[in-house]
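Hi all, posting the design record for the shared folder.

TITLE: backbone redesign
STEP: 1 of 1
STRUCTURE INPUT:
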């Protein structure tokens, strides 16, 4: 999955919107929508199948 900085994603089946802020080492970092400046979650490449781009069919 190719991630774009500033794009909004969500966990499949989840409600929280997360915004991709970049990669630090092996970790893709996300902020919770509305909580700018706070890393809400980090995912490894092997975990990216758990999320989807908001608005994707």
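Okay, here is what came back for every position:
SEQUENCE:
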């Amino acid at each position: 999955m190719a991630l774009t900085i500033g794009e909004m994603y969500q966990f499949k089946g989840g409600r929280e919107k997360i915004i991709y802020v970049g990669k630090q080492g092996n970790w893709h970092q996300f902020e919770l929508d509305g909580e700018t400046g706070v890393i809400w979650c980090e995912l490894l490449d092997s975990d990216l199948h758990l999320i989807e781009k908001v608005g994707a069919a």
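COMMENT: The chain has a mean pLDDT of 94.
Let me know if anyone wants the other runs.
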